[in-house]
């Protein structure tokens, strides 16, 4: 399978990054081998980014920016905007939560029905609460398919 060619804009991003690396490597005492190690990639992988063979993505772009002590904006406005949009979602106060009804020994009112509701993140507990609300993490798959292992559940112990 032939690898997809980068667009001219994408190649310019890669080559701009290469120019920045070549300018800063003496100042930062960086060789390609050391930079590749810091990025967690092989030296040939690093060359593929710098020479316009591999497409830059938000994750690798932010790692390059960190190691070269620059902004992603310095070589890719496209990726910088993508990162800004992702960062906005970190503090987003609302989340969409998909709710799927199921029937496990109960009446068949909601089986197979699903809907997506928007819920304020402050309502979704991330830590155990005092009082009657308790947070548990499913230790195994005993409640599959509704709650797989690792599912976080908030239980109101005041309800019977």
UniProtKB/TrEMBL annotation:
Which SUPFAM superfamilies does this chain map to? Answer: lambda repressor-like DNA-binding domains
Q: Which SMART domains match?
A: HTH_XRE
Q: Which residues form the HTH cro/C1-type domain?
A: 30-75
User: Which Pfam families does this UniProt record tie to the protein?
Assistant: HTH_3 (PF01381)
Any one GO MF term held by the record is:
DNA binding
Q: Where are the transmembrane segments?
A: none
Record protein name field? HTH cro/C1-type domain-containing protein
């Amino acid at each position: 399978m032939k690898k997809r060619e980068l667009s001219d804009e994408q190649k310019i991003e890669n080559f701009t990054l290469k120019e920045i690396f070549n300018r800063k490597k003496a100042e930062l005492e960086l060789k390609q081998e050391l930079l590749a190690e810091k990025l967690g990639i092989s030296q040939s992988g690093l060359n593929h980014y710098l020479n316009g063979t591999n497409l830059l993505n938000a994750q690798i772009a932010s790692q390059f920016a960190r190691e070269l002590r620059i902004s992603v904006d310095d070589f890719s406005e496209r990726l910088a905007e993508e990162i800004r949009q992702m960062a906005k979602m970190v503090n987003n106060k609302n989340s969409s939560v998909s709710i799927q009804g199921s029937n496990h020994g109960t009446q068949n009112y909601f089986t197979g029905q699903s809907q997506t509701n928007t819920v304020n993140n402050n309502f979704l507990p991330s830590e155990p609460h005092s009082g009657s609300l308790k947070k548990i993490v499913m230790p195994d798959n005993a409640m599959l398919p509704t709650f797989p292992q690792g599912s976080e559940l908030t239980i109101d112990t005041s309800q019977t």
